[in-house]
Amino acid sequence: MAAFYKATLADFLAHSPDEILGSLLRSYQHNELQKRQARAWEIEIGVLKSVCTDLIRLDPSTAQWSLLLEYPIPRRQKRLDAVLLAADVIFCLEFKTADKTHTIQPQRQVEDYALDLRDFHEASLDRRIVPIVIVPKAPAATNSTDKVSADAVREVRLANASDLAAILFAAFEAEHREGFVPIDPATWDNSPYRPVPTIIEAAEALFAGHNVREIAHSHAGATNLTITSDRLVEIIQEAQRCSEKVVCFVTGVPGAGKTLAGLNVVHNPALRQEGRPAGVFLSGNGPLVKIVSAAIARDHKRRMHQTGGERTVGAFIQNVHVFVREGLEKADKPPVEQVVVFDEAQRAWNADQNRKKNGLEVSEPETMLSIMDRHQDWAVLVALVGGGQEIHNGEAGLAEWGKTLREKFPKWKVAVSPKALEHDASNAGHRLFTDGNSGSLVIQTETSLHLEVNLRSFRARKLAEWVDAALAGDAAKAAAIVPDLRDFPFALTRSLPTAREWLRKHARGQQRAGLVASSGALRLRADGLELSSGFRQGNRDLFVHWFLALPPDIRSSNQLEIAASEFECQGLELDWIGICWGGDFSFDAANKGWLYRNFSGSRWGNLKNEIDRQYLLNTYRVLLTRARRGLVLWIPQGDIADETRLPSHFDSTTDYLVRCGLSLAD
Length: 666
Hints:
Layout: E1 5-8, H1 9-14, H2 17-27, H3 34-58, E2 66-73, E3 78-86, E4 89-95, H4 104-120, E5 128-134, E6 157-159, H5 164-175, H6 185-189, H7 199-207, H8 212-215, H9 219-242, E7 245-252, H10 258-266, E8 280-283, H11 286-304, H12 309-314, E9 317-319, H13 320-329, E10 339-342, H14 351-358, H15 364-372, E11 379-384, H16 398-408, E12 413-416, E13 442-445, E14 450-451, H17 463-471, H18 475-481, E15 490-493, H19 496-506, E16 513-517, H20 533-537, H21 542-548, E17 563-564, H22 566-569, E18 574-580, E19 585-588, E20 593-600, E21 603-606, H23 610-624, E22 627-634, H24 647-659
Parallel strand pairs: 4-5, 5-6, 7-11, 7-12, 7-14, 8-9, 8-10, 10-11, 12-13, 15-22, 16-17, 16-18, 18-22
Antiparallel strand pairs: 1-2, 2-3, 3-4, 19-20, 20-21
């Protein structure tokens, strides 16, 4: 992922503008945009020529600094306009040649690029990084350089064509550290860059043609994920050759990339050869399907500068329940797709739920297999299996798939991760065959179908352990884990304004922050947060904008006005999360356990059904694991005059979480 152009400042001055422009254009793929892009580059080159001349006049040694133009930021599918490697200091330069004044969005953009370099670019580790926005014709701006930052990424500076050289030189003198080894430009340009994508970013990247290996974070994670994806493709191709019907069960630790593997498979070009239709990614998570589809369509429009992405995206990712209904409406006709990936397959509806929704007396696993079984030659169903975050009524579980295959579809071959045959924690202890009896099925155990490396968040890998301990009522174990979360900011407050301020302080660049709350925390209305279903139904695109819009758009999650429930945020993540703790789930100090409640009419009632209690526990597990970089817990003060918000419930929960190792932020 090298820059389009790189040279020392001395060589840059020696090269003609036409030589530099030609080098950039040869690397640029969008021919229809070359004229507009070329004009921007001409202005940028002119400004940089003048700046380099001034820098060398100020200090001749700057002639050996290195300038890189159009450096790729893989996760963003964008490029930094320019990077200046000044001895041991890195300058990120973002030009806005068409603007007349400085605005906030370019500042967020360049700061975000700088944060990406800090976190994911190996050769930028422990280097000071200075982001600068250049609007050539803008009035001179006042830069605050008095603030001493403990972060490697410094405050964004604003420049125009006239003062850029002076700003660069002053920043270098402030940030340069004697004795530090200068950055080698060739090493830096070719350094490993291992971003951790959100599911939205991963889907955008795959849809844009990137390989899963390019967007996975660690060597181990990328290798594990690639092995799984490649093996699934091999199984599908074998099914094509041998006219077989195969169901694959993929397991993995939380955050290992099961969804990413599934997305990679359905968009693999090898499966679309010889005119074969692409596979389809199915999910029962309606908000996830809608949000990811909208993100891909927007990204497609941005990259291609044309509309029409929605139609293509609709064939790439669909709601599983819609897919099933359409399959039922077409009677005995098989679907167009012969490869189907079912995300969170253990959450398919059981017979009771399927009866309510589709009028069928069989489970959704049986319905899905019967639809795919209509193909006369071959078909492959890839079931991605997890556990521990079930939050809906009527979910069939992994064993329903095993029972259905054994009794109704014995001719299907089963390629299965060994973890799906065991009582493994990655599946919350569930097994494909509860009694170990697979009947006459052909079982093909595939170790490559288990993903064992967590790559969801580069900072939050210990968080899941803390959450498990805290929800299990083991405060001592949770407290012992907290020191391992030192790189994952984690705070507790009794003040909602303090929680909002904490999130605003931590969310830099284009990082996303947002509030989340249990759908059952209905009395948060008294604190200004509405969780009722009616509120959501009135605006169907509410959470598309919440997840995708950026400030200053008031619909963005960063506005911190609307809390997403577990249904809207499951399967998705934000960088910084504020959890708004509700009265539905509080710690009972007397009984040393959690109190499970639901709100009906004007009062709370205790949940007695064990399944309902498990769903509520999983709700808070989902909320507590949505953050990639850090989170703050807000527990209301309550009101002694309001029986639905008694302070005692919130106080006991606060005391318990403090014993779990958290400290109050206010």
